[in-house]
């Protein structure tokens, strides 16, 4: 009889215990995984909102430039999206963290319409140097925010003393001037084959990774240096949309001021036409010209609008 | 038969034991989860509060509100009342732009009364720029309210003391 019981002498109660034990273990492992994924999403969302709050002071005040450094708890990947739908367009930020050598899932996207951030579409780092500069076109349109990874050294060669002083005053440890260290991203004014980023003042263009974009004013020059073509062109369209809304406001203000006996005589027609015809940064030159004309009239008018 | 009965009782005992253990672990897990996530709400409220305080300052200095160079050199917390009056008629374009529920301007000094309308502007106390009708939490900052004024013979800049009040979503509570 004993032999008949077979090679494995396991009672039903043991099999039952194994099965239930396996089920409990599987459930526990699944629960832990799910929990850690939720925790990662929570961390990413909290970090995203905190980052948004840290950027807000960069937009207030009348300073010419402002800078901050942000250090995230772990190596992070920032996914930056931009769209130009609606009256102002918008942008989204989502953070992924590197935990145990693996990237967490893309976090909750934090979106905003009132910020203009210039970064590549995806970039990694733990410490970011950030600075902002007002974009006047010809009136103030927004404060532009530029991100750079503190590990990426940017070496500025041939820039004017004014630009160098402005960048030096930011006290960003990843900016070099004149003499470049090995591995630094060389940003040259005037065009040079040895440079990673070429800024040409002859046609106000920035060439980077074989792609060319156009700029007017230093604020947009920095924007072209620190972002990629897709982000730059998208953010530029968003900026022009806001400039268009502001033009409307200034135009109404100008009309209202006539009642006070104050005529500004600024004509917004060409400027607005330029904005509505804007296809890409190459068209910026025409809008800038119209803007300059408006600004010179505004400066010498009895009632300055901006 | 007796042996079989004792085996059945043992299995039953084990089943109840395992069931009890499972329920115990599930309860411990739920307790741990509620403990871990109890800070999420507070953390969100804190971040929203920070955001609200920063946004009022930002709004006062944004291109839509700030005086810029229209009244001499650029100043912080200076609101161009003529520009804001023009903005009021275009505020629908700005829906969702700042992610806020209301914007109001209150003139503090010199004192005046009444809600601003086209018939009494700028001799009024209270200017509602955006009012979504939603309840929320108000945050404010003191500002200079500047505008162009005429006394019949000359045009001059007139600045008064006011408050910029911004209403945020109820979620802040």
What does this structure look like?
The complex is a heterodimer of chains A (306) and B (173). By secondary structure, chain A is an alpha/beta fold. Chain A has a domain at 245-299. In chain A, 38% of the residues lie in helices and 28% in strands. In chain A, strand 2 and strand 3 form a beta hairpin. Chain A is elongated, with a radius of gyration of 28 Å. Chain B folds into two domains: 1-36; 51-172, no CATH class. Chain B contains three helices and five strands. Chain B has a five-stranded mixed beta sheet with strand order 1-4-5-2-3. In chain B, strand 4 (136-150) and strand 5 form a beta hairpin. The longest helix of chain B has 35 residues, at 2-36. The mean pLDDT of chain B is 86. The chains are: A alpha/beta (306), B alpha+beta (173). At the A-B interface, helix 1, strand 7 and helix 4 of A face helix 1, helix 2, helix 3 and strand 4 of B.
Secondary-structure element order of chain A, N to C: HEEEEEEEEHEEEEEHHHH
Terminal residue distance of chain A: 104 Å
Query: Largest interface: which pair?
Result: A-B, 51 and 53 residues
Number of helices of chain B: 3
Number of strands of chain A: 13
What structural category characterises the helix and strand content of chain A?
A: alpha/beta
* Average predicted confidence as pLDDT of chain B: 86
- As residue ranges, the low-confidence spans of chain B are none
Low-pLDDT segments of chain A = none
Fraction of helical residues of chain A: 25-40%
């Amino acid at each position: 009889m004993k032999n008949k019981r077979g090679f494995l002498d396991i009672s039903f109660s043991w099999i039952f215990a194994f099965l239930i034990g396996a089920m409990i273990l599987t459930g526990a492992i699944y629960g832990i995984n799910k929990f850690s994924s939720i925790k990662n999403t929570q961390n990413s969302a909290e970090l995203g909102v905190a980052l948004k709050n840290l950027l807000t002071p960069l937009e207030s005040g009348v300073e010419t430039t402002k800078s901050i450094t942000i250090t995230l708890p772990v190596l992070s990947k920032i996914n930056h999206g931009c769209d130009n739908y609606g009256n102002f367009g918008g942008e989204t930020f989502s953070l992924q963290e590197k935990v145990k050598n693996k990237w967490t899932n893309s976090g909750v996207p934090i979106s905003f319409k009132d910020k203009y951030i210039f970064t590549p579409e995806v970039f990694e780092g733990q410490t970011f140097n950030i600075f902002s500069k007002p974009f006047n076109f010809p009136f103030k349109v927004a404060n532009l925010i530029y991100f750079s990874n503190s590990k990426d050294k940017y070496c500025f060669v041939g820039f004017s003393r004014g630009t160098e002083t402005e960048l030096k005053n930011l006290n960003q440890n990843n900016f070099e001037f004149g003499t470049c260290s090995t591995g630094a991203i060389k940003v040259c004014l005037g065009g040079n084959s040895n440079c990673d980023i070429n800024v040409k003042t002859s046609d106000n263009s920035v060439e980077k990774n074989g792609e060319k974009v156009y700029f007017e004013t230093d604020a947009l020059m920095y924007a072209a240096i620190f972002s990629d073509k897709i982000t730059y062109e998208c953010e530029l369209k968003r900026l022009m949309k806001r400039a268009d809304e502001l033009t409307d406001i200034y135009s109404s203000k100008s009309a209202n001021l006539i009642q006070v006996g104050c005529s500004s005589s600024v004509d917004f027609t060409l400027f607005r036409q330029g904005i509505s015809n804007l296809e890409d940064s190459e068209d910026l030159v025409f809008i800038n010209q119209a803007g300059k004309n408006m600004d010179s009239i505004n400066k010498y008018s009895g009632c300055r609008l901006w | 038969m007796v042996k079989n009965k004792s085996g059945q009782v043992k299995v039953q005992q084990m089943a109840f034991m395992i069931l009890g253990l499972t329920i115990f672990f599930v309860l411990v897990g739920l307790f741990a989860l509620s403990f871990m996530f109890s800070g999420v709400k507070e953390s969100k409220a804190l971040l929203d509060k920070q955001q609200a305080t920063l946004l009022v300052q930002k709004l006062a200095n944004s291109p839509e509100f700030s005086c810029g160079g229209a009244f001499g050199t650029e100043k912080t917390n200076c609101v161009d009342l003529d520009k804001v009056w023009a903005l009021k008629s275009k505020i629908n374009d700005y829906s969702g732009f700042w992610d806020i529920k209301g914007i109001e301007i209150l003139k503090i000094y010199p004192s005046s009364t009444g809600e601003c309308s086209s018939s009494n502007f700028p001799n009024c106390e209270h200017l509602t720029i955006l009012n979504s009708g939603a309840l929320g939490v108000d945050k404010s900052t003191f500002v200079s309210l500047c505008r162009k004024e005429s006394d019949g013979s000359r045009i001059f800049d007139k600045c008064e003391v006011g408050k910029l009040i911004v209403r945020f979503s109820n979620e802040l509570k």
